[in-house]
Amino acid sequence: MNPTRIKLGIIGGGQLSRMMAFEAQKMGIYIEALDPDPKCPASYVANSLIVSDFYNEEHLAKIFHNNDFITYDIEHINAEALKKLYDKEPKIFPSPYILEQIQDKLLQKKIFERAKVPAPAYRKLDKNEIENFESDIYPVVQKSRKGGYDGRGVFVLKSPADKANMLKTDSLIEEYIDFEKELAIMAARDKEGNIKLYPVVEMIFDDRVNICDITSAPARVSEKVVKEVNSIAEAIVENLDGVGIFGIELFLTGDEKVYVNEIAPRPHNSGHYTIEACKTSQFEQHIRAVCGLPLGSADLVIPAVMANILGDESHTGKPLITGLKEALQIEGLYFHYYCKSSTKPFRKMGHITVVDNSVDSAFKKVSQAKNIIKVISEK
Amino acid sequence: MNPTRIKLGIIGGGQLSRMMAFEAQKMGIYIEALDPDPKCPASYVANSLIVSDFYNEEHLAKIFHNNDFITYDIEHINAEALKKLYDKEPKIFPSPYILEQIQDKLLQKKIFERAKVPAPAYRKLDKNEIENFESDIYPVVQKSRKGGYDGRGVFVLKSPADKANMLKTDSLIEEYIDFEKELAIMAARDKEGNIKLYPVVEMIFDDRVNICDITSAPARVSEKVVKEVNSIAEAIVENLDGVGIFGIELFLTGDEKVYVNEIAPRPHNSGHYTIEACKTSQFEQHIRAVCGLPLGSADLVIPAVMANILGDESHTGKPLITGLKEALQIEGLYFHYYCKSSTKPFRKMGHITVVDNSVDSAFKKVSQAKNIIKVISEK
C-alpha cells in the first residue's frame, strides 16, 4: 500500500464513480478513474483520469499497476483481462470472478441457487432457439444474458404475438412475477467477512423507460419481509465471498413472497438516498470495503425519498438546469448533479433526495420537486 | 448568471474552500479557487485554480469577472480591491464591507455595539502606546487588531511582568472573561433575509497552541443559554445585513452570562460537525446563501463530536496518515483529510467526526480516536 495515502483506481467514470470519488477524496484517498469520455462525471473529482474504453488490456493493466486497489462502477468491462491481473495480485474488488458471474444473467441465477435464495424460475434460451420459441404460459420475461442495463435487455412477452419482437440474443426465459412492489437492499461486506445491511427500500420505476425512478427508504413493508430480504442479502454476499457493496433488487408479491431479481457488484441507484439518510453513504462504504478499511454503520438516521432527475424527453444537447432555486425551497431537499456534458431524453442527469419525518411526507415533496426541476438543453 | 450552471469563485484554497467545493460540485456548481499554492487543498476538487496571493488586484478582478458569485474562505485578503469590484456589481458574499469590519477587531467591536450584544469591555491600544501600557486589573487580554488567526494575535497578560512580551502592533486591550465554556454557533442568512441557526456547540481548545480542537454538538448548556446565544447570533447577522454563513464564538461564564468573542464571515472549524450531523452542512448552506439559493434546514439529526487532526508535534514534511484503519473501527467515526502537501507541528491536516446517541459517548470515542490516528511525516 502507498505509504502516504491509499490510491484507488475506478474503472468507469459515471455518476457512481463520481460519487465514490467525492467520498474517497474526503478521506484523502487518491482516485484514478478510467473512462472513454475525458469529460465524464468523475473527471471533475478524480485526481487523474485514463481515457480508455473498458476493454483495452493495456490501459486496464496501467490503472491496475498505478493503484493500491481497483474497483469499478459498471459491469460491462473486460472481466477476462481483470481476472489475469487479479491472479497476479488480488487487489480488485469485488473480484473479477464475481463480476463475470454477475455479467451473465445465467450465471447470476447459479449464484442464487448456490445461496439457496428464492428467485424466479428460468430456462436458458440460446440465440438460435429464439426462432422456435414456444411457451405454455404468458406473460413470460425474456432477459438478455449479457449487456442489460437500466431496463435494456429485458422484454416481457404478453402473448405469442410478441414473439416477433424478442431480443435476438442469448437469453433466459424467466417466470413473470406479478409483484406488488420492487424492493432493493444494499449489502456491504469487508475483507474479514463482516456484513453491514442497509435498510430495505422500495423502488418505483418510470414505466416509460423502465428506469428506477424513485426510491423510498425505508420500504413500507412488514417486519417479516424485512427479515426475509436481510437473510437473502446476507446469503448472497456470503456465498459470493464478496468484498465491496452489492445492490440487490427483489420482487415482493401480494402474499409477501420475496424473489431476488438481480444483483449489482457496486453502489446502486437505489442506494443514493444513503448519502443524506444513513450514517455511512453507500459510496464511502464501498470504498472502505475495497480499500481494506472497516465498514461504517449502515443505520438509517432519517427517512428519505430519492428521485432521479432524468433528461427532459424533448431535449438533447448541452444541459441547462431549470427550477433549482424553486425546488430548493422545499425543506429537506438536496440536489445532486452529475455534470454530464450533454443531456438526452431520460438520461440520468442528477438526483434529488428529500429527508423528512416520514416517507409519506418525503414522497409528496419529491413528487412536487420532480415537476419543478428539469434538465433541458440550451437553445 | 451562467445559463447552464452557476459559477462560484472562492478566494482561498484551504480546507474550508475544499469542503465548500465538494458541496458545490455535488450540486453541479462550477468552482474556481484562488490560492498562492498550486497544490492547496481545494486544488484537487475545484474546476479551476488561479494561482495568486490574496492581494493581487489583477487576479482578484479575474476571478470576479470569471464567475457569477464570489466568496472566500479566509479573512486576510484584499478587502479594498474587493470593495471596488463589489461597487461595480454586488456579487461578493459576505460583502467586502462586512469583511473589512471583521478584519479589524476594533471594528468588530463596533458591530457588537450596533447589534447591542454583550461582548467583553475593551479599549484601543495603538502600537505606539504599548511601551507605556498600564493596567489596574490583571489578567487582561491584548488582541492584535489585524491578522490574528488560530490563536495568533492574542496575548494574555497575567501580571505587569508580562508587559515585555506584548504584541508590538495596533491592538485592543480587552476584559478577561473567566469563562467556564467556549461556545460557538453557525448562523446563515440568505439574500431575502431569512436566517437559519445551527445548534449551539461547545469548543474545547488545545491549550498548547490555542487551536479549537474539539467541538461537541449540541453544547451541554441550559435552554436559557441556547436562547441567549440564538438571539445574539440573529442580532449580529441581521445588523450586518450579512449573506452567507457566519461563525460566532462566545464565552459562557459560571453564572450563565454570555459574551461574544469574535465572528468569522465564512464556514468555521466549529461547524465541521454539520457535515455528518445536520440536515444541511455549513458548506452547502454557505454556497446556497452566496449563490442566491434558498437555505436548507439547519436541524441537528444526531449528536456529534468533531476533533481536528493536527500535524504531529515532532514531524515536518511529506505527510503520512497512521492509524486510520484502527480508528475507523470505531462505530460512527468519519475521517476527513485535507491533502495538504506538507505537515508541520499542530497544522490542521484533517478532522474526525463521531456521531452517536449522546455527546458524552461520542466524546469518549473521539478522545480514543485522537490517540490512534496521527499525521506524521514520511521518513
UniProtKB/TrEMBL annotation, chains A, B:
This is N5-carboxyaminoimidazole ribonucleotide synthase. ATP binds at K105, K143, E174, E175, Y176, I177, E182, N261, E262. It comes from the Bacteria. One of its GO terms (cellular component) is cytosol. GO terms for biological process: 'de novo' IMP biosynthetic process. It catalyses: 5-amino-1-(5-phospho-beta-D-ribosyl)imidazole + hydrogencarbonate + ATP = 5-carboxyamino-1-(5-phospho-D-ribosyl)imidazole + ADP + phosphate + 2 H(+). Belongs to the PurK/PurT family. The keyword Lyase applies. PANTHER family: PHOSPHORIBOSYLAMINOIMIDAZOLE CARBOXYLASE, PURINE BIOSYNTHESIS PROTEIN 6/7, PUR6/7. GO terms for molecular function: 5-(carboxyamino)imidazole ribonucleotide synthase activity; ATP binding; metal ion binding; phosphoribosylaminoimidazole carboxylase activity. Residues 109-291 form the ATP-grasp domain. NCBIfam families: PRK06019.1-5, purK. InterPro entries: ATP-grasp (IPR011761), ATP-grasp_carboxylate-amine (IPR003135), ATP_grasp_subdomain_1 (IPR013815), PreATP-grasp_dom_sf (IPR016185), PurK (IPR005875), PurK_C (IPR040686), PurT/PurK_preATP-grasp (IPR054350), Rudment_hybrid_motif (IPR011054). Catalyzes the ATP-dependent conversion of 5-aminoimidazole ribonucleotide (AIR) and HCO(3)- to N5-carboxyaminoimidazole ribonucleotide (N5-CAIR). Catalyzes the ATP-dependent conversion of 5-aminoimidazole ribonucleotide (AIR) and HCO(3)(-) to N5-carboxyaminoimidazole ribonucleotide (N5-CAIR). Keywords: ATP-binding, Decarboxylase, Ligase, Lyase, Nucleotide-binding, Purine biosynthesis. Homodimer. It comes from Melioribacter roseus (strain DSM 23840 / JCM 17771 / VKM B-2668 / P3M-2). Its EC number is 6.3.4.18. SUPFAM superfamilies: Glutathione synthetase ATP-binding domain-like (SSF56059), PreATP-grasp domain (SSF52440), Rudiment single hybrid motif (SSF51246). Pfam families: ATP-grasp, PurK_C, RS_preATP-grasp-like. HAMAP family: PurK (MF_01928). Pathway: Purine metabolism; IMP biosynthesis via de novo pathway; 5-amino-1-(5-phospho-D-ribosyl)imidazole-4-carboxylate from 5-amino-1-(5-phospho-D-ribosyl)imidazole (N5-CAIR route): step 1/2.
